[in-house]
Write a structure and sequence with these properties.
It is a single chain. The protein is built from 15 helices and 14 strands. The protein has about 400 residues and is α+β, with helices and mostly antiparallel strands. The chain has a five-stranded mixed β-sheet with strand order 10-11-12-13-14, with helices on one face. The protein has a three-stranded mixed β-sheet with strand order 1-8-9. Helix 2 packs across helix 4, helix 6 packs across helix 7 and helix 11 packs across helix 12.
């Protein structure tokens, strides 16, 4: 019989698995940062810097002692991390690289087929020429490979060398060795990825088992579809078969939604349901029945935070409907171009529209929206002000400015 897990306990576990129950002021350092990214699984990379780039804000929201320099060293000097694709461009532990080789094979087949449909052209010559230029000439930015007579356009009008760079990166022959003003620097994978990871091979069944097992570990509980979507490495059918084959290790649980509706059948590793259903104050010795409480402070999350990446899961667990409206016409936006979710303790309490004006040295708050039933008490607004001050310092501006009408 499936065990019912209450919504507060489910939220609590997921927050803990997402690194949001750890003390946000404990000194992190390089080793701690690497461990954090490993435990999260990946950190999404995005170019928008309305306040701060997504990967920096994701890490800062979990630990305010995070230093950008540590991430750069781990990526570009220690080579303990690498950049590649999950559901989007992400930073991952290099120990995961052997499993990504299976993605490279699938990506090559998918991209070649799509290009045949969209372009009807053979890019093989451009691929090999681009690879040869980097092999012989060393690391390169895409702008250094551009033909002089090429006119810019959408991605489908990329010059052949740019298309080749992305293809070679997506399929593993090239890797990102660093960034210059956020533009990728490409080099041969064997010159970027440490040899023991670059040469390691994982057979298919072990790859599927790793991907599903590691996804469920980081989610805590999930459907087979959620397991497949976590890394976007395996197919929904592969995840479903994995669940069926591992039923001796798994148990069915029912996850109560935030709105009190019908519980959602999910899977968890055996014994988790009993431990979560236990008295929250009881210590079973495994750290599950006695999960650390999430900090009571208000925290500003990145729109790409992994807590909210699966929008439907976040809505069920937290009762929080969130969509990024960057690509929504301004007149049709419910909130704004790039609006940040707000977490307080174990609840999503609202969202905030703001922008870092680096010329004036100000973090400008345009508008605050609180969720239904969340009151703008003096204490809550003080916690928000403290968080914005922390974020302003991290972003490199001097003050927080509340613009006229920010309270709506």
């Amino acid at each position: 019989m499936a065990i019912l897990i209450s919504n507060p306990r489910a939220r609590h576990l997921f927050l803990a698995r997402q690194g949001l129950c750890a003390p946000p002021h404990k000194a992190l350092g390089k080793a701690g940062l690497l461990a954090m990214i490993h435990d999260l699984g990946f950190v999404q990379v995005d170019s928008i810097a309305t306040v701060e780039r997504a990967h920096h804000q994701i890490l800062f929201s979990r630990n305010q002692t995070y230093r950008r320099e540590d991430l750069k060293v781990l990526l570009e000097t220690d080579r303990a991390l690498f950049e590649h694709w999950t559901h989007d461009a992400s930073i991952l532990p290099v120990a995961f690289y052997p499993y990504w080789k299976h993605r490279f094979v699938r990506e090559e087949a998918r991209i070649r087929e799509n290009w045949r449909k969209w372009r009807g052209e053979d890019f093989a010559a451009a691929f090999e020429d681009t690879y040869k230029r980097i092999a012989e000439g060393g690391p390169a930015l895409s702008r250094e490979m551009k033909e002089d007579d090429h006119k810019s356009g959408g991605w489908w009008n990329w010059h052949p060398s740019k298309t080749a760079l992305e293809f070679l990166w997506r399929t593993g022959r090239l890797s990102i060795s660093g960034r210059d003003n956020f533009q990728k620097i490409y080099d041969l994978s064997e010159r970027v990825v440490p040899a023991d990871h670059h040469t390691a091979e994982v057979e298919h069944d072990a790859f599927v088992d790793w991907a599903c097992r590691q996804a469920l570990t980081r989610l805590g509980f999930a459907t087979s579809g959620e397991i497949a979507a976590f890394w976007n490495l395996v197919t929904p059918q592969e995840a479903k078969l994995w669940v069926e084959r591992q039923r001796n290790e798994l148990e069915e649980v029912l996850i109560a939604p935030f709105d009190g509706g019908r519980p959602r059948p999910s899977y968890a590793f055996a014994g988790l349901g009993d431990r979560l259903a236990a008295n929250p104050g009881a210590d079973s010795g495994d750290g599950l029945a006695h999960l650390p409480e999430p900090p009571a402070r208000v925290r500003v999350l990145s729109p790409f935070d992994p807590l909210l990446r699966d929008r439907n899961r976040a809505e069920r667990l937290f009762g929080f409907y969130y969509r990024i409206e960057v690509f929504v016409p301004e007149a049709k936006r419910d909130y704004g171009y790039y609006v940040f979710p707000l977490l307080e303790g174990d609840r999503m309490i609202g969202r905030i529209d703001m922008k870092a004006d680096r010329k004036s040295g100000s973090l400008d708050v345009k508008r605050l929206w609180l969720e239904q039933g969340i009151k703008p008490s003096a204490g809550r607004l003080e916690k928000l002000d403290a968080e914005l001050a922390r974020l302003a310092r991290f972003t490199g501006v001097e003050r927080v400015t509340y613009l006229d009408g920010w309270r709506g």
